[in-house]
């Protein structure tokens, strides 16, 4: 299947977005956010705070678009249109991912009564929760999918094999129970990443670079995992934390400096150091 580049919609591409949505929603205007079938309407929506994503084919041709927003703890999306196989699914996945990272637990949308469309969303895990319209108005179904909770938590015995796959560590040591200083990024019940804190002696905690499964990389989750690790270190008797500045840390250089990590050597070649008395309290 063709892989699409899913990114935020930008003002420079409004004409292509409008063309895709106009074609996709022909005869279904009641499900399209007002104005999104014209370049002017898409531009106005972006300028007034609407969040939109586009899916592009290799080469930059727009193959799909969607608008989304959160309301009362629910991730809503509408105006999902595509003109190429798989583009719509990629957009829905990205909307779900963004909602998950914001701590939202439900993803919802409205669908036409066409059985084919509802069947596709059923395959994606969406179930009907309401029916709207009728009595002269087009009938639509509200469908919902519960999003897995994305969290960074302490390692459990059941995580042993996943940790071993991600890190190369012997699973036996994790099968014996939770190891102090080991944390996993959990996507529901799936282990998606690992970070650890080890005693480097003399009050120094050695934080590992987070290891992530491929589909979770490049999303800024490493910073969240590092933050959890240093919270643990700061409450476990350590006064300083170190972090390798290997190739994987280079991308994080600016964000780590914003968090008061000091780079010793060049990014990607030395190490970072953080005085744990400088770690802000949650909410600061």
Task: Describe what this molecule looks like in 3D.
- The chain has helices at 14-24, 39-47, 87-101, 115-123, 160-167, 172-175, 221-234, 253-258, and strands at 5-8, 51-56, 62-71, 74-82, 106-112, 127-134, 137-146, 150-154, 182-187, 190-199, 204-207, 211-212, 240-244, 262-264, 271-275.
- Helix content is 27%, strand content 33%.
- The protein has 284 residues and is an alpha+beta fold.
- The longest helix is centred in the first third of the chain and has 15 residues, at 87-101.
- Strands 8, 9, 10, 11, 12, 13, 14 and 15 form an eight-stranded mixed sheet that branches.
- The model has no long low-confidence stretch (mean pLDDT 89).
- The protein has two domains: 5-146, Aminopeptidase (3-Layer(aba) Sandwich); 150-278, 3-Layer(aba) Sandwich (Aminopeptidase), CATH 3.40.630.
- A hairpin with a 5-residue loop joins strand 2 (51-56) and strand 3 (62-71).
Topology:
Blueprint: E1 5-8, H1 14-24, H2 39-47, E2 51-56, E3 62-71, E4 74-82, H3 87-101, E5 106-112, H4 115-123, E6 127-134, E7 137-146, E8 150-154, H5 160-167, H6 172-175, E9 182-187, E10 190-199, E11 204-207, E12 211-212, H7 221-234, E13 240-244, H8 253-258, E14 262-264, E15 271-275
Parallel strand pairs: 4-5, 11-13
Antiparallel strand pairs: 1-2, 2-3, 3-4, 5-7, 6-7, 8-9, 9-10, 10-11, 10-12, 13-15, 14-15
Low-confidence sequence ranges: none
The CATH topology assignment of the largest domain is Aminopeptidase
Shape: elongated
Give the C-alpha Rg. 23 Å
Number of strands: 15
Q: Mean of residue pLDDT?
A: 89
Report a brief summary of the structure.
This protein has 284 residues and is of the alpha+beta class. 27% of the residues lie in helices and 33% in strands.
């Amino acid at each position: 299947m063709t892989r699409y580049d899913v990114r935020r919609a930008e003002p420079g591409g409004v004409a292509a977005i409008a063309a895709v949505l106009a074609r996709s929603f022909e005869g279904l205007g009641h499900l399209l956010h007002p104005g999104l079938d014209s370049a002017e309407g898409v531009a106005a929506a972006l300028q007034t705070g609407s969040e939109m994503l586009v899916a592009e084919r290799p080469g930059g041709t727009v193959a799909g678009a969607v608008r989304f927003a959160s309301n009362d703890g629910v991730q809503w999306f509408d105006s999902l249109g595509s003109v190429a196989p798989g583009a719509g699914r990629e957009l829905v996945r990205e909307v779900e991912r963004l909602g998950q990272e914001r701590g939202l637990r439900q993803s919802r949308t409205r669908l036409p009564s066409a059985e084919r469309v509802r069947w596709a969303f059923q395959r994606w895990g969406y179930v009907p929760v309401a029916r709207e319209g009728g009595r002269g108005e087009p009938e639509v179904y509200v469908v919902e999918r519960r999003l897995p909770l994305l969290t960074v938590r302490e390692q459990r015995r059941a995580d042993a094999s996943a940790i071993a796959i991600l890190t190369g560590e012997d699973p036996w040591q994790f099968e014996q129970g939770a190891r102090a200083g080991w944390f996993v990024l959990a996507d529901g019940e799936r282990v998606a990443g690992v970070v650890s804190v080890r005693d480097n002696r003399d009050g120094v905690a050695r934080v590992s670079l987070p290891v992530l499964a491929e589909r979770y990389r490049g999303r800024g989750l490493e910073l969240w995992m590092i933050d959890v690790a240093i919270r643990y270190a700061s409450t476990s008797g350590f006064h300083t934390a170190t972090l390798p500045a290997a190739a994987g840390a280079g991308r994080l250089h600016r964000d780590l400096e914003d968090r008061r990590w000091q780079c010793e050597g060049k990014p990607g070649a030395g190490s970072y150091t953080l005085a744990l008395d400088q770690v802000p309290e949650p909410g600061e």
